[in-house]
Each structure stands twice: as C-alpha cells, then as structure tokens.
User: Fold this.
Amino acid sequence: MRHPMLTVEDFTGLPEGLRVEEGTILACPRCGRNGVGRHGWESEMVIHVQTLELMGDGMRDEPRDCCTLADPAA
Assistant:
C-alpha cells in the first residue's frame, strides 16, 4: 500500500515581500512572525507553517501553525 507524501512548508524564515506559490510573505499583524495571508469564507488568517499532502486524487494543504485575523461573519 502506498502512503501519501507529506511536505511541511515553514514560511516564518522567509523574508517579507518574497513571492511564493501560495502568495506574498508578510508580517502577521497578530504575532509578528512571517507567513502567507489566506482569505477564506470562514475567516482571514496568516499561515506560518502548512502541511501539503500529495494523494492519488490531488493535493491537500492544511495549516499547522496560523493566526486567525478576522471573522467576516461577525
């Protein structure tokens, strides 16, 4: 049985302003560490570390360390 391939991406050590596939590195207004901003339907967040899982039917990314900034529903 083949297991999915996992990759961990840590954005905290990358310089602010650097463009990566996920977006542009920015300083988190909540904690000050670097990360990539993500806008979703539930909340806005800065992802500091994420896990990418390559599976047979595609790729899944999951935030492992992030700061939630705002709740658009509020």
